[in-house]
Amino acid sequence: MSVRTVTVSTTVAALLGGSALLMPSSQTQAAGTHDAPVVFAHRGASAYAPENTLAAIDAAEDLGIDWVENDVQRTRDGVLVVMHDTNLKRTTDVEQLFPERAPWAVKDFTAAEIAKLDAGSWFGAQYAGARVPTLEQYLHRVERNHQKLLLEIKAPETYPGIEKDTLQVLRNEGWLSRHHVKHKLIIQSFGAESVKRVHAQRPDVITGFLGTPAVADLPSYAAFTDQINPSHGTLSADYVAAVQELKGAHGKPLQVNTWTVNDAATAARAAGYGVDGIITNFPDVVRDATR
Hints:
The chain contains twelve helices and nine strands. It has helices at 10-13, 54-62, 94-97, 111-115, 135-144, 162-172, 178-183, 192-201, 218-222, 237-244, 264-273, 283-290; strands at residues 38-41, 67-74, 80-82, 148-153, 185-189, 206-210, 227-229, 255-258, 277-280. Helix 11 (264-273) packs across helix 12.
């Protein structure tokens, strides 16, 4: 679906320059002596278009946002699709099309069945007919838009081997090239074992752990990840500093990308703590509050 409904001003549409991995020096200054955090459009610009759809990627592009975040799961027949919830109920019309299939888990449907679902009408009539994209389709759109991807492996305990499957799709679509790995891709998960498996299979890929490990446990995470990505409600300046004092799996300081920050005041506070990135449904609001 290519309909775009985001109206942007010249200021809002200005691209977030220089947002490469591992603290690019070209970022503008904000919040004291800290660099401005990289802004990640959560499930795409999900305040402005239905989450995890191609339209949400395009909405982020319209706002001038380089990085989009998504969630990857696996269908019954082994196809990777982009969906946040482990069931299809909240963001599609699965109850109407398949009323007898409760609880409508992603893992219980084939890719062909999921491709029939309307993933846009719940958000707004103008998005009627938007589909749940496969990971392959999603990558094509991100590439077309010259954007970058923060990819979350969702509920890895539900999908044994999904790390290998994800890396295979990324490889097939050219996303494990040296350029993509260095500048355009991060893989994260709430599952520490999942992040470990990604790191073991592709040690060159930048990885992130979603959560707030105890400070005493941070060295063990630093062995296999490059980022500690906690909820903003768990943050403090001391915690951010403790993370960044350690070197991660690639020998560079661990980074902190916090989520999900949706207002200017919280964004400014997180930037003041020195976070490296902010994941948000309102990427324009966060960018304008922190640059």
